[in-house]
Design goal:
The chain contains 3 helices and 4 strands, in the order ααββββα. It is of the alpha+beta class. It has a 4-stranded antiparallel beta sheet with strand order 1-2-3-4. The protein is elongated.
Length: 134
């Protein structure tokens, strides 16, 4: 009687051990599926249409086009110009294209006076129109 109980209790243990061994071995087998690299976040794309007179231009060209900026902030070799009117506020960020070179406009942001977004090109056009009317 003792012998039959032993056979019944060792069979499930042996089966569990065999399954565990198979699972361990399965973890050691290299995957055949190629790993896909994680998607990189994309930098925002700036629509350049209507901004040709701003992007790539230096501070002198911007002042000739819009007049004196309402705000001129210099931090290191970077610079921020802000032009404001009753229609919109335009922030132009100037960075040197290379060490020792004159900073040029590389990014433009625009908003309404109350802070809501406005199309950048529309703001540029409004500010140019304002300047030409003076």
């Amino acid at each position: 009687m003792f012998r039959s109980i032993t056979r019944q209790t060792t069979a499930p243990r042996a089966l569990a051990a065999a399954i565990g061994a198979l699972l361990l071995l399965a973890g050691c087998v290299p995957s055949t599926a190629p790993e896909t690299p994680a998607a990189r976040p994309r930098a925002p794309v700036l629509n350049r249409q209507g901004l040709e007179g701003v992007l790539g231009h230096d501070a002198r060209a911007l002042e000739a086009q819009f007049g004196r900026p309402n705000l001129d902030v210099q931090e290191g070799d970077a610079r921020k110009y802000q032009f404001a009117s009753e229609i919109c506020v335009l922030d132009v960020y100037l960075y040197p294209p290379a060490r020792g070179r004159e900073p040029v406009a590389t990014w433009v942001d625009a908003r309404l006076p109350d802070g809501r977004d406005i199309d950048r090109a529309s703001c540029v056009a409004a500010l140019i129109s304002r300047q030409q009317g003076r």
